[in-house]
Design brief:
The protein is an alpha/beta fold. The chain has helices spanning 3-12, 39-51, 62-82, 96-111, 130-139, 156-161, 185-194, 214-217, 242-247, 282-298, 300-321, 346-354, 368-374, 390-406, and strands at 20-21, 24-25, 27-28, 90-93, 117-121, 142-146, 167-173, 199-202, 221-225, 236-240, 258-261, 266-268, 324-327, 336-341, 358-359, 361-363, 379-383. It has 2 domains: 3-30 and 299-406, Aspartate Aminotransferase, domain 1; 42-297, Aspartate Aminotransferase, domain 2, CATH 3.40.640.10. It is built from 14 helices and 17 strands. Strands 4-10-9-8-7-5-6 form a 7-stranded mixed sheet, with helices on both faces. It has a 4-stranded antiparallel sheet with strand order 13-14-17-16, covered by helices on one side. Strand 11 (258-261) and strand 12 form a beta hairpin. Helix 2 runs antiparallel to helix 10 and helix 4 (96-111) runs parallel beside helix 5. It is globular, with a radius of gyration of 22 Å.
Amino acid sequence: MDINTHIESIRAQFPILTQTVHKHPLVYLDNAATTQKPWSVIKKIEEGYTTQNANVHRGVHFLSQMATEAHEAARITVQQFLGAAHSHEIIFTRGTTESINLVAHSFGETFLQAGDEIIVSQMEHHSNIVPWQLLQMRKGISIKVIPFNEQGELDMQVFASLFSEKTKLVAVTHVSNVLGTINPVKEIIQIAHSHQVPVLVDGAQSVPHIAVNVVELDADFYVFSGHKIYGPTGIGVLYGKEKWLEAMMPYQGGGEMIAQVSFEKTTFNELPYKFEAGTPDFIGSTALAEAIRYVQNIGMDQIAAYETYLLNYAIQQLQALGDIRFFGTSAHKSAVISMQVGNIHHYDMGTLLDKLGIALRTGHHCAQPIMKHFGIEGTLRASFALYNTTQEIDALVAGIKRVKQLF
């Protein structure tokens, strides 16, 4: 689908975009934080609660069987979307953060011991830093950090030099939520695998914007959140290679993840249920599958091309304003712009733009090491999605110009 020629019909599918904020039309440019939801996803949630709300897997009655079929069909939808070899390699979680914590706990408890090392990058979201630091406190491991340059690109030479016989895992973001940099994860994985080291890829900011195939990448773990790809909050995915998931101990105990329980011994369920303790979000999983179908119908390549068009247009228009510092200027970049406008504090700029109906993100974006690298406290961030328009970018530019005049 050519998004440019269908943009009005696409926008009409997102009911929230029709509202006004402070008597101005909503200009929503905070998509890296969360995306808005199309009618098809909203209706899928309603349908789940009104026609097939029953607990999955354990019931013999009609509603339970229908809910189970929908939940497991959603798992297959995710498997096919990521290009995974098996549906049992798809674990449903609450989101990217829980997926990373699951690996940090289960992989860490199974394979890591004091003195072992993991490698992360300097541009990680806190959710791909803190779980490893908690593991460090528990087990006495070391964390090595890949630096990035002034353009926001990882130093691959330094990365290649960080490996030792004690390196047990690499955890790196596919796309930076601040810099927009699309990291060379296939190359990262190849280098790590040459040292027999597995790789976890944080795909929270990549899956909504570019086509991902985990088998082609040869990723050992790949994680993302539903709410960043037009799905509901509270549902996410961990893809893991079967060999790792089979070897790892469970993350949580309870119902569903067990085979047999006695006070003498408990045995664990097969994949994927071994890592899905308790009642799953079977409404969220089906709504996530609907969101995936939505972007597939448009086409991931078309989405990537359109968002790159928006990104280039926005940078050009913002540069024309002058006195703007951009953070993350890699040529290989997703649709995120982090900036500072003159000496205006990012919070002040964001607050005043909100009065014009323009929604952006301000602050450190849960990536304080990036801010420390640049010697700043935070940025103003505009992030684009498939329903944004050049007219909205024009509104942003006009808003920034207006705020600049106030200062």
